[in-house]
């Protein structure tokens, strides 16, 4: 049936349900009238994702929470507007597909691919201001809020940036969708996903996987088996639901069910700094039907997780709630078990992911924010050990990476040394694994899944 003429296609932007709760880490817009104009505009824009896709992801995450598949959630710490280029998006998707192939091949498990992509433009910060050479300016809060260059004009919070974030997300997602469904993700093209990467041990092992897959495909073809799944895949979009002036106007009523969905991404999470059960970010996630996540740091108490489960997953819907633990390699083996046990005691079965990055950040002698690859691997190992001991499912990994050969994290088989950090440090926020380190991590995780 055709919609009635003049029927507003985007009817259903959700207004009026947002209570006035404390909201941390929000921009301070200099002009409230301008911010209101932008919120209204965002409320008229088309959704970036559809409710049904979010339901599909929720079902897939439910499978992962039962151990039937494994989740790879990966991408930038902070996307930037400058990075919205075909080459950059291709490299980011390429490394995700490479890691997923290594995991699927090595562990014999389907991999649910979720990018930190097409919306990861807002950043929580531990300090409001930053001082350089006696000049104090607001900290960089992600391209959605202000600019990275250290000057007054760039660091001013500008609501128009939310419109640019929407457009950047739309064009990113458009290309991701086209590529993964239109041939780039075809298993016949596996060799091209890492094109241009220098040859290293990790790349050599990736080539072995490529050869194994090619042999399997030849075999299948020879016996007359083909499947659309050999030729395309799905990459879901996720980001931290941080800037509420962006997320709320993009929340829409699903015409099938009459229920609200966030349409800025398939999966949204609350960060370690905004996960208070009585505050605005958890309230926001509680009101939308998407699969949602919460980051849990080393100070998380059993009571915190009990309240989060009650707020976010009162009906114990499989796949609805993901806990992304980011404890630090040194403490995960002590800090994680009481939390998992508290959740088990509630009869809840969330998906557990490990973020082995954010608990392992330190500043190098050269002044770079960095992470050691060995700590990243050790936290993943600790995650597998704890869940193994408690009989719960280690459902996946959540990492920050780049499709390029950046030098931001120390270590790896082709080691980035502390003295190399300055060579190619391009992240405006946290240090990312480079392509080799990402492949190496995938190879190690595949091995942990087999053990
Ligand atoms: C992040 O994922 O970039 C982040 C800031 O994480 P966390 O909330 O865990 O500190
Ligand atoms: Mn980060």
3D architecture notes:
The protein is α/β, with parallel strands linked by helices and 451 residues long. The protein contains twelve helices and 14 strands. The strands form four sheets. An eight-stranded parallel beta barrel has the order 1-2-5-8-9-10-11-14, surrounded by six helices. A two-stranded antiparallel ribbon has the order 3-4. Helix 9 (302-312) crosses helix 10. The site of phosphoenolpyruvate has 10 residues, from loops.
| Series of secondary-structure elements, N-terminal to C-terminal | HHEHEEEHHHEHEEEHEHEHEEEHEH
Question: Are any ligands bound, and if so which?
Answer: phosphoenolpyruvate, manganese (II) ion
| Class from helix and strand fractions | alpha/beta
Main β-sheet, spatial strand arrangement = 1-2-5-8-9-10-11-14
Estimated helix fraction: 25-40%
Oligomer: single chain
Residue stretches low in confidence (pLDDT < 50, at least 5 long) are: 1-12
Which band does the percent of strand residues land in?
A: 5-15%
End-to-end separation: 54 Å
Shape: globular
Give a brief rundown of this model.
It contains twelve helices and 14 strands. With 451 residues, the protein is an alpha/beta fold.
Give the secondary structure arrangement, pairings included:
Blueprint: H1 32-44, H2 51-65, E1 70-75, H3 86-107, E2 111-116, E3 129-132, E4 135-138, H4 152-155, H5 160-181, H6 201-222, E5 235-240, H7 244-247, E6 251-253, E7 260-262, E8 267-270, H8 280-287, E9 292-296, H9 302-312, E10 321-325, H10 332-345, E11 351-354, E12 361-363, E13 369-371, H11 373-390, E14 394-400, H12 435-450
Parallel strand pairs: 1-2, 1-14, 2-5, 5-8, 8-9, 9-10, 10-11, 11-14
Antiparallel strand pairs: 3-4, 6-7, 12-13
Helix pairs in contact: 1-5, 3-5, 3-6, 3-12, 6-12, 9-10, 10-11, 11-12
The structure holds phosphoenolpyruvate and manganese (II) ion.
Phosphoenolpyruvate binds next to loops.
